[in-house]
Each structure stands twice: as structure tokens, then as C-alpha cells.
Amino acid sequence: MNQLVDVNLGFENAYSTKAQFVINAPGRVNLIGEHTDYNGGFVLPCAINYGTLIAVSARTDDKIRVTALDYNNDHDEFLINAPIEFVKSKVWVNYVRGVVDELKKSGYELQGCNLAIKGNIPQGAGLSSSAALEVGIAAAFNKLCNLNLTRKQIAMICQAAENNFVGCACGIMDQLISANGIEGKALGIDCRTLELTPVSVPEGMSILMVNSNVKRGLLDSEYNLRRQECESAAEFFGVTHLRDVSIKTFEEKKHELDTTVAKRAEHIVYENQRTLDAMNAFNRNDINSISALMADSHESMKTLFEITIPEIDFLVELVKNKINGKGGVRMTGGGFGGCIVALVCDDAVDEVTATIESNYFEKTGIKESIYMSRPVNGVGVAV
Ligand code: GAF
């Protein structure tokens, strides 16, 4: 049965009435540009054909009732017109509460509703299941209450919810791509101006995502720490964001920085350039350059930003040796577990997946999950 049928049925079971509409918010995979978003820099993600569905119907009071169909119908309820509290014991509810709180703080008039949530984005895998949930919730209220929010406004409200309510100091990439994805395209994003540049994925190439199935345990604490380290480097250079430090300036001054901070800054300064170079390489259909840039990005995340883990490095090496310059591979997302992303020629996909299947478990004792992905449109009404 497909997800849309499931979420409608789940809604009817939970609330004994039909949903008025269903919103679909996609997850994302980032092709290059990691941790550059909160440094005011560049990223190149695409929205993926895995998403979070939210079935919605209005209530006549100011209550919001939410049922998580994938969590045994676990539910939450709270009132719009009362202070919205953070719930320590149940992580998922805070993404919903946070978005509602942020919409309220921005002065939007909200209406009570019943919601049922169901999704197929692998969780804790670096594919933005939480951003998709946030964006889906904001889009649901946008439609239900005629808020007239633009896609960029939706993304900014959701990022603020995650920063202020959930407590992760994330950048804008995940929410922005979930809201703005374009079918068949990756989006080059200038995370300072929020300018979006569609880039075509080369003909005859597939996007493969391989989940190491190592959950990203350290993510929040280490993520926030990386962000602080980048901010202290920016302060040293006298800029608000590391995006404004050129490679030349960085190389001239890096010796004056604390060693760890210098490594973090080096990753960001070069990763920004790599992302711009990758956008050009995609436009030229230049697979060799894409391959080299993705390889350098991974190496930099491993040795300078220190956000990869052995299982992920092993997967990247396996795929890299197999595709041998005819595609690219790197870790994707925040790090400390999760997924790798590979751009692979269509006719090499079977060979690459077979290599992973016969080596990863043997080496790590963990079974991987492999997903084929294609770029899809951003959040919208599911049909
Ligand atoms: C996480 C964050 F939410 C993004 O904002 C981004 O920083 C990413 O990690 C790393 O590129 O997904």
C-alpha cells in the first residue's frame, strides 16, 4: 500500500473523520558543501523521493492534536493560545511544537487542527527527516490558515524552530531544499542571499545513497561545537561568516590560529570553493572534476572537520575504488554516522551495490541500506 493511502487511513482511524488534505515534504541529499550553510556559504543539495506526509483537518477549538503513525500512533496535544512547552521525554513532538511556536511568535493567526504524520525518510541517517517534518508542519498551517508564506519564509521559520525550540544550531540548507526542491535538479544555494541556482544532474547518472546504519549519536553536541569553532575562526579574521575569508587570506594567517580551529576553518574555506567549482562542473557535465571535488570534500570532512566515522570512510573507499573516477562519492549530511552519497553511471549501479553488499557487513558486522534517489519538487499537497 502506498504512503498516501496509509496516512489517510491512519488519519481516519485516529480521528474518525477524513483528512481535508495531505502535505508531502521531501528529505534531501547534499551532493557537496558540508557545514558551509551556517558559515554563509554554498551548498548543492537536491530534494529526494523520500518524504514526510502530514494529513490535516481543521478543528473548531485551538487544540492541535498530532498522531505519529510510524511510532505506534503515539500522540501529542497542546493549545495554540497557551505557552508551548518543550517536551524532554519525547523528541519528535518538539519539531511540531517548535514550528507552531515560531509561527505564533511571528504573529500568524493559527487554527486548531488534527494531524497524522507518516514518512519513509530513514531517520538519523543524515537525510533530513526532521527538517522535512518541520517544513511539512509549516506548509500544513500555511494552507490551513491561508498564511501566504513563501517557500523561503517557510524554510526560515522552520530553521528558527530548530535553533530556538529544538536547540540544534543548524543552518538553512535542509529546510530550504525541502521547501524549494525542483524535479530533476540539484540546487546550488547561496546560504547568505538564499539565491537558488538549479543545476542538472548529468544524464545517465544515478544518485545512490547508502546508509551506514550507524545512528548519528554525537550529532547535536558536536554539531554545535563545530559551529562555535567556525565562529571563533570568523571572529579571528574579523568577518561575520567564514564565507568572506578567501583562500589566500586563510593561507597567510592560518598559523596564528589555534590548531583545531585552523583545521575547521580550512575545511570551510576550501569547501565553499569546491562547491562553486562543482556547480560549474555539473553545468559542463564534467564527471572527472565532480569526482575529484567529491573525493576532496570527503577527505576534508575526515581529516580537517573530523565528522566522519570508520564505517562511512570504509563505504566511501569501497565505492571510490569501484567507480574509479567515473562518478563521485562522499559522506553526506551533518556527520558522525548516517549516509554516503554516490553519483554513479547507470550501467555501473549493479556492480557498485553488489560490492557494498558483499563487503560492508563482512567488515563492520552492520547491514547497510541502499536507496536509489532522484531529485523531486519541494513541499506541496500530496496527490
Ligand atoms: C545538518 C544541518 F541541519 C544543516 O544545516 C547542515 O549544516 C548540515 O548538517 C551539514 O552540511 O544537516
Automatic annotation (TrEMBL):
Its main location: cytoplasm. It comes from Pseudoalteromonas carrageenovora IAM 12662. Pfam families: GalKase_gal_bdg, GHMP_kinases_C, GHMP_kinases_N. It is found in: Cytoplasm. Residues 280-358 form the GHMP kinase C-terminal domain. Keywords: ATP-binding, Carbohydrate metabolism, Cytoplasm, Galactose metabolism, Kinase, Magnesium, Metal-binding, Nucleotide-binding, Plasmid, Transferase. The keyword Magnesium applies. ATP binds at residues 124-130. The record marks 28 as: Transition state stabilizer. Its EC number is 2.7.1.6. GO terms for biological process: galactose metabolic process. Mg(2+) binds at residues 130, 162. Residues 94-180 form the GHMP kinase N-terminal domain. The active site is at 174 (proton acceptor). Residues 11-57 form the Galactokinase N-terminal domain. This is Galactokinase. One of its GO terms (molecular function) is magnesium ion binding. It comes from the Bacteria. Substrate binds at residues 34-37, 223. The keyword Kinase applies. NCBIfam families: gal_kin, PRK05101.1. The gene is galK. One of its GO terms (cellular component) is cytosol. It is an enzyme of class 2 (transferase). It catalyses: alpha-D-galactose + ATP = alpha-D-galactose 1-phosphate + ADP + H(+). Pathway: Carbohydrate metabolism; galactose metabolism.
